[in-house]
Specification:
alpha+beta, two-stranded antiparallel sheet, elongated
Length: about 160
């Protein structure tokens, strides 16, 4: 699963939890006042405050992540790679598309691509491999080729380090 989809699920769960805090806080406040328990109505007040301020923030965060997912889908599924094409497809300004692409790369929601001057392209670079070293074994004189900084001779078992 892509990182953006995991973040959207987390954001949705958080927004739902914060939404539930509002009515539950109201119920706890009413029950706490009705039975005369300050601890219950204090929890109710805390739930109301968390729900009142957190609910809008949670849903705005969820909406922003959904907009980023739409951009990822346009790149990966619709194969749109220039800022101009993405802007036309999504109906937002080119400046906003550039800002969203920056967020995608900063948060690592778009893997396997790299940024170009006016868009995105597939990253077809190969990972660098360790360079191979060849040395003669100091004990038996056999040529030993190895990666990394050290190895053992396959013939006599002597420990060999790279120069």
């Amino acid at each position: 699963m892509q990182p953006i989809h995991k973040e959207i699920k987390k954001s949705l769960l958080l927004a739902l939890l914060l939404t539930l805090c509002l009515p539950l806080g109201g119920v706890l406040l009413g029950v706490g006042l009705g039975i005369g328990q300050p601890a219950v109505w204090a929890i109710g007040i805390a739930g109301l405050v968390i729900g009142f301020y957190g609910c809008p923030l949670g849903w705005v965060g969820y909406g922003n992540k959904c907009a980023l997912r739409r951009l990822v889908d346009a790149i990966e599924e619709e194969h749109l790679y220039t800022v101009k094409d993405l802007s036309a497809q999504l109906g937002v300004s080119e400046k906003e598309v550039r800002a969203r692409i920056d967020v995608l790369f900063k948060k690592r929601y778009l893997l396997g691509y790299r940024r170009t001057a006016d868009g995105i392209e597939l990253n077809e670079n190969k990972p660098l491999s360790e360079r191979e070293s060849t040395r003669s074994c100091p004990s038996c004189g056999a040529k030993v080729t190895f990666k990394g900084t050290e190895t053992t001779c396959p013939y006599c078992g002597t420990h060999i380090q790279r120069d």
